[in-house]
Amino acid sequence: MNTKPIIDYFSKILPLNTAEKAIVSAKFKERKIKRRQFILQEGDVCKVNTFVIEGCFRMFMVDENGKEHNLQFAIENWWIGDIGSFHSEEPSKFYIEALENATILQIQKEDQIRLFVDYPKFNLIFRVFTENALISCQRRIIQNISSTAEERYLDFEKRYPSLFNRISNVQIASFLGVTPEFLSTIRKRIAQS
């Protein structure tokens, strides 16, 4: 099992000692996921926190009209999961689907709690990445209520250049809250200016 990427990720926040590296290797489980495979479906309780070693995922919901709404993407060295379901142990409203063949590391909730108790450094590490996720969420909410679709697209392009060749325009449009046709119009307008 390859835990080097997650150990490197944690060590950028706080360096890990030998015992902490060993517990990461023991508690995180590696999974190989095929393209279009789900690691979470609506109605399931999210029981794991997922770190992406390789591949690309999307988290989305389906509204009452059957329309999909992308909330998050995750690529290498990013986390993905329904944090609300994970903590409340209530059924999720989301799906998490692999957009590419992928390798992930997952930790069960009980094991994550044990990490926090037995190795307090992980409590701080997880707090830092949770705070960063909250900052991103707040930024996205502000952007959705105060920016034009074109401004949201340009920000997405600038903030996530590594996603552009990995996800379809339909997925980007869903994330931005526009139709694929409107996204095409935006891209043409930008190309012409």
TrEMBL record:
This is Crp/Fnr family transcriptional regulator. CDD domains: CAP_ED. Residues 31-116 form the Cyclic nucleotide-binding domain. It comes from the Bacteria. InterPro entries: cNMP-bd_dom (IPR000595), cNMP-bd_dom_sf (IPR018490), RmlC-like_jellyroll (IPR014710). It comes from Flavobacterium jumunjinense.
